[in-house]
Amino acid sequence: MAELRFPAPPLTDEVVLLRPWREADAPAAFLAFSDPVVQRFSWPQAPPSSEEDTRRYFTELEEARAAGEELNLALVRPGDAGVVLGGGSLYDVRPGQGCASVGYWLAPEARGRGAATHAVRLLARWAFTELGLARLELTCSRDNEASQRVAQRCGFAREGVLRSHVPCEGGHRDTVVYGLLPGELT
């Protein structure tokens, strides 16, 4: 697959700015990755366990971008690009099928302020207009009500539940699947 290019200009609005990860972001990202809510809902595998692991994770993300598989961006405040609020991504990018998945996570201090909703809207608009995708998927744990509200606010339609879908904590968890088509973004 072709390399996924970073959005130019960067995706931004009055609430969030999505930009490439920087090595200097590792301490803030590691702190957020250590949050129990992030671990519960964002990491079916073991999360990075040190700042050095986080830097290696950033390298893996860059390799995936270069391979055209996913695009991961730091979610920061406009005007203060050094304060990491979370992350946003397009992953499982399948240009031949015209689809990808969108994901996000937020640091505890960024929750409840609309940052995830704004980030998803920016990513979705860009994916439809710049990448020409015909479908975006958003998945989350059945008990992740906050992520389900983000999906609904952005216009995603709930399409079903994949039972026992994701390995998690020695078992498997159910996944709620949402879909969004061009013209449905709200």
Main beta sheet: strand number and arrangement?
8 strands, mixed
SSE succession: EEHHHEEEHEHEE
Q: First CA to last CA: what distance?
A: 30 Å
Number of discrete helical segments: 5
CATH level-four homologous superfamily name of the domain at 11-138: Gcn5-related N-acetyltransferase (GNAT)
Based on CA atoms alone, the radius of gyration comes out at 15 Å
Classified by CATH, the class of the domain at 11-138 is Alpha Beta
What's the short story on this structure?
With 186 residues, the chain is α+β, with helices and mostly antiparallel strands. It has helices at residues 26-33, 36-42, 51-66, 115-129, 145-153; strands at residues 11-12, 17-19, 71-77, 80-94, 99-106, 135-141, 157-168, 171-180.
Report on this structure.
The protein is α+β, with helices and mostly antiparallel strands. The protein has a domain at 11-138: 3-Layer(aba) Sandwich (Aminopeptidase). The protein has five helices and eight strands, in the order E-E-H-H-H-E-E-E-H-E-H-E-E. An eight-stranded mixed beta sheet has the order 1-2-3-4-5-6-8-7, sandwiched between helices. A hairpin with a 4-residue loop joins strand 1 and strand 2 (17-19). Helix 1 crosses helix 3. It is globular and about 35 Å long. The protein starts with 10 loop residues before the first strand and ends in a 6-residue tail after the last strand. The model has no long low-confidence stretch (mean pLDDT 92).
Write out key terms for the chains shown.
186 residues; alpha+beta; Aminopeptidase; 8-stranded mixed beta sheet; 5 helices; globular
